[in-house]
Amino acid sequence: MAASPHVPLFDPESPVFRAHEGGKLGVHATKPLRDRDDLSLLYTPGVAEVSLAIAADPSLSTRYTARGNTVAVISDGTAVLGLGDIGPLGAMPVMEGKAVLFKHFADIDAVPVVMESGTVDELVEAIARIAPSYGGINLEDISAPRCFDIEERLKERLDIPVFHDDQHGTAIVVLAGLLNGVRVLDRRLEELRVVVAGAGAAGVAVTKLLQRAGVRDVVVCDSRGIIHPSRQDLTGHKARLAASTNPRGLTGRLGVALAGADVYVGVSGGQVPEEEVASMAPRGMVFALANPTPEVHPDVARRHAAIVATGRSDFPNQINNVLAFPGIFRGALDAGATQITEAMKLAAAQAIADLVPDPTPDCIVPSVFQEGVADAVAAAVRRLAPTSHRGPTAV
Q1: 24, 31, 98, 345: which one is catalytic?
Q2: Which among 94, 157, 288, 298 counts the fewest CB atoms within 10 Å?
């Protein structure tokens, strides 16, 4: 297990540690066990009839077990929040927290599953083998580029929704904010010049979803600068990004990309010099999403941009994945979806944007506590969900 580069002060009397003591989850029965009759129905001999029926028709498992409303939140602890590779036990409090969000916002029972890291083959095999217990798989905090292959291979192998929230949840909420941002500024997605700083899980997904929504000019930067086909250090997903982005053929550092750009989306950490932000086009948008320290402080960003968003709750326009993933899984589970498609992601983004009927520079996305967010997203997703009459998993 990798050691954390962060060494927090352990204080069991602090409010934070007291809130986590004993964990944040428990198990409760949904049927009463009052007497011998209940026992014979819920366990042996009655349960045998249900087990045989499901063995004959696996689709019945979503009706007669908890599986139809249960999601596995799976991590190997290699890319946890802003903490990096802290291992599976370090990841467990975060996965428990994610499960609490599932329950609170969408009444979905989520089970944290942390596992020792390994190769892509090993993780895919391990996850696929436990998949029959669940109605969906939420991948979480798995490092790039492994996360791309793991998700794609699981989607091919399983007949239940597989969703890497670090990628797609972020992208969906970014797009929702951008949809309302262009309304505020009387612009069109197609005319924007967008810079995405970060070519990891979130950066790749943001780029792809914005392109599918109609953005034509996206420039992606990593720690070495603009991603373009002439770079000799590109492998795998970055080479694919180079082939589909940067239509003006820019080269150089992030500052070159930002000059004249309309939108900055930061999903990489680090700090952007103010003079580079100032070089952006007038009336632009800055989405500085690194937590806890945005790439551009909101006070600095507001001096140069018309709309500013962060990942934090103490500034306006919080781009928070919780606006997306509970409703997406709620809709997918209710529909019996076999996967979460690109059309479902676009519909989820539009549903989130529509929850702000009159957007302003300081309100382009709803609050995570606004009533009806998960319901609206679920309804949009449900309408487009692909379903299958095959068995629940294809392991």
Answers
A1: 98
A2: 157
